[in-house]
Amino acid sequence: MTAAIFQMGNKTLKNPGNHNNLIGLPVTLLKLEKMHRRAVLEMGMNHKGEIARLTEIADPDTAAILNIGMAHLEGLGDMDGVAEAKTEMIGNSSPEAKIILNGDDEVLMKHAARFGRSFTRFGLEDGNDVQAIHLRQNGSEGIGFDLVFEGNAWPVHLRVSGLHNIKNALAAAAIGFCLEEPVNHIIEGLGSFEGVKGRFQRIPLKQEILLIDDTYNANPSALRAALHSAAPLARKEGRLLVGLGDMLELGKAAVSAHREAGGRVAGSGASWFFIMGSHAEVMRVGAIAAGMPSDRIIIARTHDELTAAIIQELKPKDMVFLKGSRKMQFEKVSENLQRHFGLRIADF
């Protein structure tokens, strides 16, 4: 989204795919040429010290932290550990760098406060510098909201769905405002963004089936946000079918997180729950405890077995939601379903 804004008026370099680690970020920087006026770089980590080193390498003029979620707990311990690792970006950015933070994230703001720096805050709550108000669900057309900054408001339409994408858009807009991008570039750039493969990607299939491919990665926080966004997209005359794989790198929290994941699927109103991975039984138990009938839960051993089970239960106008950690390779299930049903031409 940030690159889409910058590309409205500047030649922009952005990291391809997930080139966000100690190899990918330098490789991306080596592609910088004189024609580039902006560079948008993602920083990822799964242990302490990684963000610090990436920040030293990139030396950003503007640094944004989107949220603190339940990811990489195996190497970081708990949410405070995640926050400490992510806020290394603040401590290792130059004093002149502009820092942008999710003002709605209490854990993030608590850890950021120790640096004694000024921040630009984005979020849905009052008090943020960049805020979204009047949120609008536009069904298959995406989502909309009014973007507020310095007492002004502008309508924004996103082609992608989900509350999490409104927060992503706010982060990108905050970066644009901090670098004095024209407002029309921010609005048009956000409106031009069409999503990223495997990240809550809406894929219309024949028989009016909607596939939500969110297979790029998974952690408990992202699953909660994605299910919250997916459920309203299901047609009134159709059903929601959910396929989940393991969420990895959760350490001691793995069992409780997967049990809770099963409960969240049951609470989403899903008609069927398809599971694969070493924590499949834990997710099944969590779903049953939350009220889901056991005969509506299927555990599969392979991608093909999972695909076959989904195909057997799918009916016209149903919606399928797929998510799992990168190593679970749930994109194979998505590809199988697309081959079986075929793609339908649609405006989303």
What does this entry look like structurally?
By secondary structure, this protein is an alpha/beta fold. The protein has 2 domains: 2-192, Mur-like, catalytic domain (UDP-N-acetylmuramoyl-L-alanine:D-glutamate ligase), CATH 3.40.1190; 201-341, Mur ligase, C-terminal domain (Protein-Tyrosine Phosphatase, Chain A, Alpha-Beta Complex), CATH 3.90.190. The protein is built from 14 helices and 14 strands. The protein has helices spanning 2-6, 24-29, 50-58, 73-76, 79-86, 88-92, 106-112, 163-178, 183-192, 220-230, 254-267, 280-289, 303-313, 331-341, and strands at 12-14, 38-40, 62-65, 98-102, 120-123, 130-137, 143-149, 152-158, 201-205, 209-214, 240-245, 272-276, 297-299, 319-323. The protein has a 6-stranded mixed β-sheet with strand order 3-4-5-6-7-8. It has a 6-stranded mixed β-sheet with strand order 9-10-14-11-12-13, with helices on both faces. It has a two-stranded parallel sheet with strand order 1-2. The radius of gyration is 20 Å and the shape is globular. The two termini are 17 Å apart.
Summarize the structure.
Helices cover 36% and strands 20% of the residues.
Helix content: 25-40%
Major sheet attributes = 6 strands, mixed
Report mean pLDDT, rounded to a whole number: 93
How many domains make up the 3D coordinates?
A: 2
- Shape call: globular
Brief descriptors of the model:
348 residues, alpha/beta, UDP-N-acetylmuramoyl-L-alanine:D-glutamate ligase, 2 domains, six-stranded mixed sheet, globular
